[in-house]
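Title: Comparing notes on inverse folding

I've been comparing how different people in this forum approach sequence design from structure. To keep things fair, I'm posting one structure and asking everyone to reply with a full sequence. Here's the target:
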């Protein structure tokens, strides 16, 4: 089946040939062209109608060719399920770093306050 075959031109080559062409010849040429177009439309409609059946046959043929999985072996896991886009990964890392910095400053603040209180109240002297 050659779906992309080149169709030869049905028109005469130049303007003089068009002017010399009789109306009867022109009508016959157009009738032939109309018949060819209807045949092409019918062929394409049949192809479109048969497409689901052909796709199912190809799918079944492909299934028959793939060997079944071993039940002893673990199924291959899809790595891309949990991955995030790079921009989201960068944003999450930035948020974690800011939280760690904030926690560090909070810890330093507590230690500083405890040291200041120890200096004046002599808790750990």
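Reply #1:
Here's my take.
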């Amino acid at each position: 089946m050659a779906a992309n075959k080149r169709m030869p031109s049905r028109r005469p080559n130049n303007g003089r040939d068009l002017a010399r062409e009789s109306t009867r010849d022109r009508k016959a040429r157009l009738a032939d062209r109309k018949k060819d177009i209807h045949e092409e439309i019918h062929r394409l409609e049949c192809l479109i109608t048969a497409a689901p059946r052909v796709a199912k046959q190809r799918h079944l043929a492909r299934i028959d060719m793939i060997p079944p999985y071993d039940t002893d072996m673990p199924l291959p896991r899809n790595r891309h399920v949990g991955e995030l886009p790079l921009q989201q990964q960068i944003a999450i890392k930035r948020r974690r770093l800011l939280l760690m910095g904030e926690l560090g400053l909070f810890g330093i603040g507590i230690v500083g306050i405890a040291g200041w209180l120890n200096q004046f109240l002599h808790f750990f002297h």
